Amino acid sequence: MRVKSSYLFAAGIGLLVALYFIIGTIFGGGDKKAGAEAKTGTAQALPSVQVVLAPESQHGYEVVIRGRTESARTVVVKSESAGTVASTPATEGSFVAKGAVLCRLNIDARQASLDQARANLRSRQLSQQASVELAKKGFRSQTQVLQDQANLDNAAALVRQAEIGVEQMNIRAPFSGVFDKRDAEIGAYLSPGQPCGTMIELNPLLVVGDLPESEAGKLRVGAPATAVLLSGERLNGRVRYLSRDADPQTRTYRAEVAVANPNMSVRSGLSATVKISAGSGPAHQVPVSSLVLDSAGRQGVRYVLPTNQVAFAPVTVIEENAAGVWVAGLVGPVRVITVGQSYVAEGQKVRVAAAR
């Protein structure tokens, strides 16, 4: 049986097509596989990092210093006169109001001098009144009336002097506060200028600290501040004083924060952490783990540029909280490296993945 030539021609065409696909698969497929392997090898050669996008936002700046509580005023109350201490009405360590007697001296002969001065004053008053009446009737000259008035004024001055001498026997509190220490006991003799005791004012209470040179220019009088004691108690107040002259030894500036202490429960001399508001400005919140040191020892963060290259920016930590740290020194939205930041260098190209 003879095969038609048309069938032989069709079979030949089919055989050629099959050979073409077989040869293309052998040679062309190998090239594609090699190219894919090359691309995969290049991708695997780039280090992989995880990033988090940190947007720029306004955040309050705070200057944090170590401080201590201090009384607003401390005065050693001294005697103005000489005498023996007769009584000490104020209890040591107790609250006393302004004007309360801290120590009372024996009056001795001062009361007698006051009584004599008052009697002399009454006599001069009668003489002056009689002179006025006689002058009206023409029996006393104007000069005599003026002399009697001068004698009356002198007697009144002597009474006032004697009253002051008696009052000086009472050594009083110059302001409301705590009678912190008694220096004189009953029976002790005090000369003028010798102490009765020490008064301290605890309301308002001061929280004082030393500012470094780099922070002193950021603050102003009246700025709000918060002091946290070791017990956890928080005291709110405002800056009342900033030194203009640095301590010659420490090169620091004294800062005083006045806080309310109505119950006087907070004592003087307690350690505190003082946070003083210094305004607000641009800042970024980043994870604590993203902070690294560069070759120069500067603290900062590594981030990824739009070209997927690594860059480093030194930052200043403003505040730390449970969500991370607020830092200053970055500009605009930043892709901060959170995983792998310690294994890449500035300028290196990386593969970027979002933080898990």
Task: Give an overview in words.
There is one protein chain. This protein is of the alpha+beta class and 356 residues long. The protein has four domains: 48-60 and 282-354, conserved putative lor/sdh protein from methanococcus maripaludis s2 fold; 65-69 and 200-278, Efflux pump adaptor protein, beta barrel domain (Elongation Factor Tu (Ef-tu), domain 3); 75-103 and 172-198, RNA polymerase II/Efflux pump adaptor protein, barrel-sandwich hybrid domain (OB fold (Dihydrolipoamide Acetyltransferase, E2P)); 110-167, Helix hairpin bin (Helix Hairpins, Orthogonal Bundle). 28% of the residues lie in helices and 40% in strands. The chain contains four helices and 20 strands. The protein has helices at residues 5-45, 110-137, 142-167, 213-216, and strands at 48-54, 57-78, 83-87, 95-96, 101-105, 170-172, 177-182, 189-190, 195-211, 224-229, 234-242, 253-259, 271-286, 291-293, 299-304, 310-314, 316-321, 324-328, 334-339, 351-354. The strands form three sheets. Strands 1, 14, 15, 16, 19 and 20 form a six-stranded mixed sheet that branches. A six-stranded antiparallel barrel has the order 2-9-12-11-10-13. Strand 14 (291-293) and strand 15 (299-304) form a beta hairpin. The protein starts with a helix and ends with a strand. Mean pLDDT is 86; it is low at 33-43.
